[in-house]
Amino acid sequence: MATSFRLQSCWGPSLARAPLGRLLRPRACCSAPGRAQLRSYAGGPGGLSAALLRTESFVGGRWLPAAATFPVYDPASGATLGMVADCGVPEARAAVHAAHEAFCSWKVVSVKERSSLLRKWYDLMMQNKGDLAKLITAESGKPLKEAEAEVLYSALFLEWFSEEARRIYGDIIYPSAKGRRALVLKQPLGVAVVITPWNFPSAMITRKVGAALAAGCTVVVKPAEDTPFSALALAQLANEAGIPPGVYNVVPCSRSKAKEVGKALCTDPLVSKISFTGSTATGKVLLHYAADSVKRVSMELGGLAPFIVFDSANVDQAVEGALASKFRNAGQTCVCSNRFLVQRGIHDSFVKKFAEAMKVNLRVGNGFEEGTTQGPLINERAVEKVEKHVSDAISKGATVVMGGKRHQFGKNFFEPTLLSSVTRDMLCAHEETFGPLAPVIKFDTEEEAIAIANATEVGLAGRCLPGLPRHSWAPANATQSQTPPVGGLPEGHFSRVCVFSKWRGWLCAGLVSLSPVAHIWEP
Fold first, then answer.
1. In sequence order, what are the residues at sequence separation of 6 or more whose Cβ sits closer than 8 angstroms to the Cβ of residue 456?
2. How would DSSP label each residue in 135-189?
3. What 3-state class would DSSP assign to 375?
4. Active-site positions, per UniProt (predicted)?
């Protein structure tokens, strides 16, 4: 049962309002060659909606500046999209207090009204889907079509939870004692801290926040420093939808302040829940914070997804699946295939056809350009990691089938890369690359493939492409029965195991998914 109590106002003196960010000013040190420039659209800088391009924090229903600002860059061109409020510990604590005070009234709002407000928020997202997609492409670099798909995906979470808000049911249980009944009531926990990644800057927020608000909780969102504009745009639309002040709060901050702000949010005694999607290393730190104050957590951490192809698989279908599972958002998703395990009998054919498919279907470019399928990596550190994995593999005997270096389009672009003759001792075989690198490992037996797939401390997804029914479940069952990993979910080694066969098409075996509303409630 969640307990609430009212605090005295902790707001400090109002900070001086800072001027709006300087928009689209290229940095002299990182101008990109060729076409890697943010396109201009009518209506605002780079075509971004002036109404949705907010640069201040959103706390207690107000847009508030911070004492400092930090720049947000377009990863394709290096242009400065804007200067955003760089919140610190005081702002983070103020946001938690605002959320807690709002919780005292939001938790008693009728489920019908909460449902209606979430539905209005969804409707506004759909009305502004074009502008929201441009924001995502501008700050994350992903192709506009992928950004448009994310906006729809993101909005649908709000629609879903607007309907689920009406279905908060309790239960009556027959206990062992004769003549008694146990009554179960579901109550909102309180303030939930939501920490989200940059690769899905909109969807990862609505997926968590929609559940929390539907259950009667309030939230403080700390978006990734590379992509704060989507979170702030959602705040603007939430405000327009009539979400009460303090129910949805956003505190952006720079990378240099992320650690201290994260600690302040996760250790605050008024916070009851932490929801995080990101790296395993960061997840461990947040789990430590949660343990010290006994907070509930929901986490989706790093992965090292294997993509297993048996001799019995249809090679053309395998290549099609490999292309889709590897190069979405230039390989920058947590469930992207990171290792391709191909049985010896079809290995050479698979590698040849995979390379041909990459040449035909992948086009590197600015996300705003028509036909682009591969945008930039989020920043130079991401490019350096891919370079490190490629050079390490080459030094240990891997063969570059195609790609293998930075793309001439700009400093944050990397060529879609295919490596063969990859061995288990290479970095790309046991570290998540998070980039457009496809390493292929040859294997002989099913047992060997399963051993390679499970040779990891983290697990989030896995894919297997057989052509016979017997292969449809054996690898999935084997990977799920292992010791729970450091990353991923505790229910099994992989949270998503997608199995493919010619006779059934894609089949989800043992799908384990988070149930955010269930985690928000406490009986």
1. 304, 430, 485
2. HHHHHH---HHHHHHHHHHHHHHHHHHHHHGGG---EEE--SSTT--EEE--EE-
3. coil
4. 300
Closest CA to 338 of 297, 371, 307: 307
- 229-261 pLDDT, tens digit each: 999 999 999 999 999 999 999 999 999 999 999
Residue with tokens 């699946």: 321
Domains along the sequence of the chain with CATH: 57-168+184-300 (3.40.605.10), 306-496 (3.40.309.10)
| Residues labelled as active-site residues | 300
Written as six digits, the tokens of 382 are 């991401």
Place of tokens 């054919």: 349
User: C-alpha distances in angstroms, 305 versus 259, 327, 340, 453?
Assistant: 28, 13, 9, 8
Q: Angle 144-164/203-215 helices, nearest 10 degrees? A: 10
Neighbouring-strand partners of residue 73: 80
Element of type H or E holding 464: strand 461-465
Which are the contacts of 357, defined by CB distance < 8 A and separation ≥ 6?
Answer: 319, 320, 323
Give the model confidence (pLDDT) of 54-66 as tens digits: 999 999 999 999 9
- In 3D, which of 248, 246, 283 has the Cα closest to residue 262? 283
